[in-house]
Design brief:
The chain is 72% helix and 7% strand. It is mainly alpha-helical and 83 residues long. The protein has a two-stranded antiparallel sheet.
Amino acid sequence: MDYQIIVSLVTLIVLEVILGIDNVIFISILANKLPAHQQKKARFYGLILAMVLRLGLLAMVAWVMKLDDDLFLVFNREYQLRI
């Protein structure tokens, strides 16, 4: 089994957990500034939006990693991002 894949997966999971906790704290701080009757709704929709955006960004990263052709041409010249 390739341990590099496992390390990458564990790293991604740890980053997602840390960013998720950061989202909870940030949204809670902002929601506390709202009137009491709007705080629960703001937390709920804020966390849902954060989750949807995070999943969307992860899907975009997965899509970009599958690209194997030139991304774009500028003045009929090929430019590739080499990492």
